[in-house]
Design goal:
The chain contains 5 helices and 4 strands, in the order E-H-E-H-E-H-E-H-H. The chain is α/β, with parallel strands linked by helices. It has a single domain (19-160), classed as Rossmann fold (3-Layer(aba) Sandwich), CATH 3.40.50.960. Strands 2-1-3-4 form a 4-stranded parallel β-sheet, with helices on both faces. The radius of gyration is 17 Å and the shape is globular. The model is unreliable at 163-173 (pLDDT under 50).
């Protein structure tokens, strides 16, 4: 029996390939390697470049992205890792706090694709991480690339049309 399908957006196009930082927690090394392979392929497919850095765990991924963003060298970020449910509530803490951290950074304007797998068991993670399977690493990279494309588009429109967000446009003036 076939499962549900989902719609995937076409890859964004870039005049200048974006520079992406892939931040990965290789706690489950083979899962992380699959996620990274999928992300690298997606970034390469749009003519982008990337660097990969490793962090000890999923909780450190938002902090690492925040630090890198302050350096201003990257157009976007991909957070990759895997959290498998265990016997304690630590799973909930790691899942919720890593996701919340990435969301807060995104709301500040960073272009982030969240590829932190949150699964019940190793087999679920393996299927999701496989670049020839569900390719969640590639999906996270695609999300970051779409956000970079949107950011560039809006920035260019603002320059060419004078569309800045000023106090009067926000209802404060």
């Amino acid at each position: 029996m076939a499962g549900p399908t989902h719609h995937a957006l076409a890859r964004p196009e870039f005049d200048e390939g974006p520079k992406i930082l892939i931040v990965v927690a290789p706690y489950y090394k083979d899962i992380a390697d699959g996620l990274v392979a999928g992300a690298m392929a997606e970034i390469e497919a749009v003519g982008g470049s990337y660097e990969v850095v490793e962090m000890p765990g999923a909780l450190e991924l938002p902090s690492a992205i925040g630090i890198a963003a302050r350096m201003g060298e990257y157009d976007g970020f991909v957070a990759l890792g895997c959290v498998i449910r265990g016997e304690t509530t630590h799973y909930d803490t790691v899942c919720n706090d890593s996701s919340r951290g990435l969301t807060l950074l995104g709301l500040q304007g960073l272009c982030i694709g969240n590829g932190i797998l949150t699964v019940e068991n190793y087999d679920q993670a393996a299927v999701r991480a496989d670049p020839q399977g569900q390719n969640k690493g590639g999906g996270a990279a695609a999300a970051a690339l779409h956000l970079v494309a949107l950011s560039r588009k809006l920035k260019q429109q603002g320059k060419s049309k004078g569309l800045g967000f000023t106090a009067d446009r926000l209802g404060e003036g």
